[in-house]
Specification:
globular
Amino acid sequence: QLTSQINLSKSDTIISVEEPQPTKPAETETTTPCPSLPLTPTCTKAPPSLANALIHYATSNITPQQTLHEISVSARVLQKKSPCNFLVFGLGHDSLMWTSLNYGGRTVFLEEDKAWIDQIQQKIPTLESYHVVYDTKVHQADELMKIGMDEDCKKVTDPRFSKCQLAHKGLPSDVYDIDWDVIMVDAPTGYFEGAPGRMTAIYTAGLIARNKENGETDVFVHDVDRKVEDNFSKAFLCEGYLREQEGRIRHFTIPSHRTRLGRPFCP
């Protein structure tokens, strides 16, 4: 028998502990050696966009415009589709989050306020954002809805060549040339009568999705508790394409209309 001595730090007493002899395994047993660990374990660094997002939100007391449940709707789609092409109408406190959720893809922001773009770019220069001018006002929404019922607005084409007054023709050329996998409409401003409103943004997002070469586009519209966002998303993104609503956000899945000629504007 072996005897080992343990010295207790809080006492001068020495205690003898009986250690049992190791038992020899039975002749019939076979033992499998544990795999040896590498001498220099490898690790993967956090992507820069994710690291920047963690630091940004950890040191900011400003929360994103959407709630956790609302964000989760689009986050689930991005989890499946990323890296992908993600177009966002609006530039805000949640922009770095969207870029991080689409790590490895291209995320483009369209913003009406040039001063706000400059301010955000000073803090987060890695975001890809463009200034967009809108020539509509919220108080014109009813008139624009009537115009949207015209036959010209039911034709699927590149928005630059559309005869529909709702089609926004002043976006950066890349917006029209790229096949977008996900589109988020959370701008322009639309909470007062003199604001630009999201009438053309919603219509154009739907037109871009339908004009995609092939596949489906997930389109999200925020603030659907408001009249314009509610009516225009139902009319031009179509209730038949509606997949989910959580709080103030709606999720539509719009198929390419170029792959099936004669497909109706709404199902």
